[in-house]
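Inputs:
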Amino acid sequence: MISANRVIVELGGRNVVDGVSFSVEHGEWVTLIGPNGAGKTSLMRAVAGLVEHEGTIALDGRPIAELGRRELARRVAIVPQVPSMPAGMTIREYVLLGRTPYISYVGREGSHDLAAVEDALARLDLETLGGRQLGSLSGGERQRAVLARALAQQAPLLLLDEPTTALDAGRMQEVLELVDELRLEAGLTVLAAMHDLTSAGQYASRLLLLSGGRVVAQGAAAEVLTEPLIAEHYGARVRVVDGAVIPVRA
Amino acid sequence: MALLTGALVGPVHIGLGEVLQSIVARLPFAHVDSPLSPTQESILWDIRLPRVVLGALVGAMLAVAGASYQGVFHNPLADPYLLGVAAGAGLGATIAVVYMPHGLGVLPPAAFVGASLAVATAYAIGRSAGRGSGGATLVLAGVTVASFFTAVQTFVQQQHSDTLQEVYSWILGRLPSSGWRDVVILLPYVVVAITGILLHRRLLDVLSVGDEEAASLGVHVGQVRLVVVLCATVGTAAAVSVSGLIGFVGIIVPHAIRLVAGPSYRLLLPLSVLVGAGFLVLADVIARTALSPAELPIGVVTAFFGAPFFAVVLRTSRRMAS
């Protein structure tokens, strides 16, 4: 699905992603972890074609540089870390934005687009909330609306940039379960960036630990979430018990 | 309603039935005679109706241009003059009045050229300085160019203080009563500009989630912004070249509509066309009757009546929301 080879992203004269290579198979859930400034978000933005990069990022063998913006948006849907949600817009209008890559430049949405919107709303249990304004939603409802927009995009690759940052433990679990359900039902491939190491390990089939713009470890959660690696790259004292990463006071 | 009011109000009384009958009499295949005397016919068809139509075109253009600027720049305070249209048109008009014989005759084209030049300069500076930084750099470039053009205009005016009144009467805005000529000149610009903007109303909704998210949804943000700004600027430049600088319409009309009908550009832009047209026609009725036979600058009327009206709409909508 994704094949990245020696990817470099330069921002402000510094390589924030510095020669990263990795691949993600169809249907896989891979999560990028790493301390602040490790390059997770920049790498995600590079995969979405939102920032210039050196090296090659290919989707199903085609370099994204060769894909037009609309074509890329049909293949990659992104859930941003802090989505911009106009307060007066209704959920249904917002989810309809996900159909943008399928509508011609000055065209209008067709019945197929409206059906895709209703399907996305139904999958996220938002049918009855479709007329609600975004400004009136709770944190969990907002995140479901963003996921519904990404789902309406009908892209096989879903990028999640810190999807649970603003959520409490219950809503975080709800959102991650939902994404996993969608992955299995709709055959999506998921590339996520997360700070919560325990959740990252629970849901991803593989983890990529980034530090200083480079991949310093990758593999199953048990191989990456180790006390020495976390101490070295996060500067944190933790204990790892049955996959749970627990901070330890000095 | 606003158009009819504009046609009915004036020093010479012409009734509603007479106006309607006179209009019907001009329709092809309508075998109806106009009830108006030749003088009344001339007042209606050569003075009032052209001015009403001109007011509607200018009002529609300024309102829809303001709404679209607010959309592409994600800035609720953006108005059609944001990128230097007003300053450029002001300089062009001043140069026409000061340096050109028969200056008032060449004022509209000079104002149009000045406005277009100012925005083109702002766009060139914004593009070269801020590639990839969204609309903020462009807005700053517009502010810079506007300051420069205003400084030059002020300097030219100071050197020729005898022309101050002519220049200021244009700057304060007025709708000329010069028959259909201005309507014919303005109409194609306004039709093309408004059509171009309305065709982008769905994409303006997409832009409301920000440049990066819009790009991730497959939109060429820079291209959309360029086309919309081009349409809004050309239309605004054409409008101010005949009407002078009428403020407030481009901000107050879109925001009043947002408060009532919501933020979606699918509804906002067509409603801006209608409400902007009606608002300016009614403002012109007040401008030419409040101190009759003298006329108030229409820009003064739009601000004087627009501000309290907007305050009422704002208050009402907030109450309804809570």
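Residues 126 and 141 of chain A are 8 Å apart (CA to CA). Flag for discussion at group meeting.
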